[in-house]
């Protein structure tokens, strides 16, 4: 039996502590995060290697994080938000 490299598993568990490795009906390994298969959302292939399943889960978590970071609805361009950012910037500038 091949030993698992803990790097993918530990990184996934650091971001999502309740993630767990399971097998489906056909013997393929999948990682469940909050009872959802996150790798399936990004169309990753099914795998019989547990290390690859953890790698796919980590890649899907990183992709989700990047999508959420750059989502257009997250950026607020109202005058109030710009003004509050400028106030924070000037306060930091005065302190230093």
Describe this structure in words.
By secondary structure, the protein is mainly alpha-helical. It has one domain. Helices cover 53% and strands 11% of the residues. The protein has four helices and three strands, in the order αβββααα. Strands 1-2-3 form a three-stranded antiparallel beta sheet. Strand 2 and strand 3 form a beta hairpin. Helix 1 runs parallel beside helix 3. The mean pLDDT is 81.
Could you give the count of β-strands?
Answer: 3
The profile of the biggest β sheet is: 3 strands, antiparallel
Query: Shape from CA axes?
Result: elongated
Into which percent range does the helicity of residues fall? 40-55%
Strand residue percentage: 5-15%
> What order do the SSEs take from the amino end to the carboxyl end, as H and E?
HEEEHHH
Q: What radius of gyration results from the CA coordinates?
A: 20 Å
| Number of structural domains | 1
State the secondary-structure class: mainly alpha
Low-confidence stretches: none
Strand order of the largest sheet: 1-2-3
Number of helices: 4
Mean pLDDT: 81
Distance between the termini: 57 Å
Topology diagram in text:
Layout: H1 6-15, E1 20-23, E2 29-33, E3 36-37, H2 38-41, H3 50-69, H4 79-95
Antiparallel strand pairs: 1-2, 2-3
Short description:
With 96 residues, this protein is mostly helical. It has helices at residues 6-15, 38-41, 50-69, 79-95; strands at residues 20-23, 29-33, 36-37. It is elongated and about 60 Å long.
């Amino acid at each position: 039996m091949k030993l698992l490299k803990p790097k993918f598993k530990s990184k996934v568990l650091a971001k999502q502590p309740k993630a767990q490795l399971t097998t489906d009906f056909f013997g393929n390994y999948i990682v469940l995060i909050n009872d959802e298969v996150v790798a399936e959302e990004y169309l990753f292939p099914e795998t019989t290697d547990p290390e690859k399943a953890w790698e796919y889960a980590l890649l899907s978590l990183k992709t989700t994080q990047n999508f959420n970071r750059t989502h257009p609805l997250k950026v607020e361009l109202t005058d109030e938000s710009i003004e509050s950012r400028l106030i924070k910037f000037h306060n930091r500038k005065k302190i230093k």
